[in-house]
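#structure-requests
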Amino acid sequence: MDSIRVSDCMSRQFVSFSAAMPIVEAAIELVKNELLGGPVVDDGGQLIGWISEQDCIGVVSQVLYYSDRVAMVNDVMSRELSTVTGDCNAMDLAEQMKNHKRKIYPVVDDSNKVIGVISRRHILKTMCERITDSK
């Protein structure tokens, strides 16, 4: 099990967001794709932030209530980022996830370009597959 790498578990299909995107549009994408959050990238695919359901919910409720508040992803995205690379040990990351609140991480390459995302579910699925395959 120790040989599981982030690249073995991560999803290479992910939704990314632009800092200039209205929050309501970002929230719609999160809901439509059943995501907890996603990477905010610049035009070159470089990671510049993270947007989550939690970031969106307060702003969307204000839009619903006042009908005219417009905020952009840039206004509420998290800029303090935790990232992983594909060669990181997934078991170490699982341990870190167990002890911290963070449920999903952007996976970046050496130039900080987002190449995927990894969540607790991705790691758990891979661990369960390995157990099933070994029987």
